[in-house]
Amino acid sequence: MILGTGIDVIDFAKLEHAVSEHGDRFLKKVFTDREIRYCRSKAKPVQHFAGRFAAKEAVMKALHTGWSEGVKWKDIEVFVQEAGGPTVELSGGARAYAERMGLKTIHLSISHSGDYAIASAIVEG
């Protein structure tokens, strides 16, 4: 049963501006150490940071929480499965909320095109 869906799109320039203005402080507030290492290992880190940012937003929308219910940015960690597709792992407030809502699976898709990243999340329970 689908419990929620979420979608988000972000312009690379918007994310680049946040990073240039706030530097590592911004990155460490939004992304886990594993996400930062992964994105920085890529030829175009900004597109990978943007994809993960959009994914986190999409998951928050699918959970119907936004930044409420104790959910923090780093409670939603996006990483690549061995098969190559993106997946998400919840912790902290996001995990507690997801357990209360009966979440079983989060389906996640991320795409990049031109100067934008988009992500879609479907939450099943």
Helix content: 40-55%
Number of domains: 1
Instruction: Sum up the overall morphology in one term.
Output: globular
Strand order of the largest sheet: 1-5-4
CATH architecture: Alpha-Beta Complex
Instruction: Report the radius of gyration as a whole number of Å.
Output: 14 Å
Largest sheet: 3 strands, antiparallel
CATH topology call: Ribosomal Protein L22, Chain A
What is the count of β-strands?
Answer: 5
Question: Which secondary structure elements does this structure contain, and how are they paired or packed?
Answer:
Blueprint lengths: L1 E10 H19 L2 H8 L4 H19 L12 E5 L5 E5 L1 H10 L3 E9 L2 E9 L1
Antiparallel strand pairs: 1-5, 2-3, 4-5
Helix pairs in contact: 1-3, 2-3
Describe the structure.
This protein is α+β, with helices and mostly antiparallel strands and 125 residues long. It has one domain: 4'-phosphopantetheinyl transferase domain (Ribosomal Protein L22, Chain A). It contains 4 helices and 5 strands, in the order βαααββαββ. It has a 3-stranded antiparallel beta sheet. A two-stranded antiparallel ribbon has the order 2-3. Helix 1 packs across helix 3 and helix 2 runs antiparallel to helix 3. The longest helix has 19 residues. The radius of gyration is 14 Å and the shape is globular. It starts with a strand and ends with a strand. The relative contact order is 0.24.
